[in-house]
Design a protein that fits this description.
Layout lengths: L1 H42 L3 H37 L8 H44 L5 H9 L6 H5 L4 H110 L3 H14 L11
Helix pairs in contact: 1-2, 1-3, 2-3, 2-6, 3-4, 3-6
């Protein structure tokens, strides 16, 4: 029965590990599609096409984000389950190997996604910088950097929009790209947070394993101390029993002596009270002798 339960548990674990692996592959596919859509957005010459690509990209990003957080929790669950298995569990080595593989694949896909978003943000900022130079050809690099850090705080487009239609179109494009950059920054921040959390999982696993080993060691020490205490208690109990029997023997011996003395004295008194007094008999005999008259012989004359 125990073997059957172990087999079922092992089968369930392998199914879960396979499902997580498939989820990671799904994320990789999404990242590839997101990267392609971002390229379309960058090179798109039609606002309608760019908007269509943006909507599809946003949907994929939301799906990917949810899947990332889900898989992170499932991988973390495997970590804690492994830490709590006994060292002699036959499936422990397989479980550890699968966890390490899944953990590495997941962190790699996080890094891949972050690189894709970093690259997309770089292209968007370059495009925004070019648009800024359209309406302000004399701008230096510091002004461009300040603008990229806070596009809404710059008034150059607002001033130029009245003068030229080109500046108006540039302003509309900049506003869209600024929204993309905000979304990219949020995504990168979430990916960095997930990546840090996955790195902490390794440290937590070591901490949990150390804690488990410490608990086992502490338990063994307590068991050893309890065994010593039990041994001492047994020895004390044996000594106490020996003392009790010795004391009981002494008391029995004393009681025996007392009983013998009492019996001896009782018998001695009994023998004394049953024997006739010798002095009285002698006196009585003497008295009787004295009281008996001695016959006197009377000689008749011939």
């Amino acid at each position: 029965m125990a073997h059957s339960q172990g087999y079922n548990a092992s089968g369930q674990f392998l199914e879960e590990a396979s499902a997580i692996d498939q989820g990671i592959k799904k994320i990789q596919d999404n990242i590839g599609r997101i990267q392609m859509l971002q390229t379309y957005i960058i090179v798109s010459t039609s606002d309608q096409q760019a908007d269509t690509h943006r909507k599809e990209r946003e949907g994929l990003m939301t799906e990917t984000k949810n899947l990332l957080f889900e898989l992170k929790d499932r991988i973390k669950k495997i970590q804690y389950e492994n830490a709590r298995l006994p060292k002699n569990d036959l499936n422990l080595n397989i479980r550890k190997q699968r966890y390490e593989v899944l953990h590495e694949k997941f962190t790699n896909v996080l890094e891949e996604y972050r690189n894709v978003e970093d690259e997309y943000m770089r292209h968007q900022k370059d495009r925004m910088a070019r648009q800024y130079r359209v309406v302000n050809p004399e701008a230096n690099q510091q002004e461009i950097d300040d603008y990229l850090a806070n596009p809404s705080g710059q008034s150059v487009f607002q001033q130029a929009v009245i003068r030229t239609g080109e500046a108006k179109a540039a302003l509309a494009e900049v506003q869209k790209r600024h929204g993309d950059i905000k979304q990219i920054e949020q995504t990168i921040s979430e990916l960095a947070s997930l990546f840090s959390e996955m790195q902490l999982q390794v440290e937590e696993q070591d901490s949990v394993l150390a804690s488990v080993e410490e608990d086992v060691t502490e338990t063994l020490v307590k068991i050893e101390k309890a065994g010593d205490a039990l041994t001492h208690a047994n020895k004390d109990a044996i000594k106490a029993r020996k003392k009790k029997w010795i004391l009981l023997g002494i008391i029995s011996f004393i009681v025996f002596i007392i009983v013998v003395i009492i019996i001896f004295q009782f018998r001695h008194k009994s023998s004394d009270s049953s024997a006739p007094p010798a002095t009285t008999t002698t006196i009585t005999a003497t008295s009787n002798t004295l009281a008996t008259p001695t016959p006197t012989s009377t000689l008749s004359p011939p």
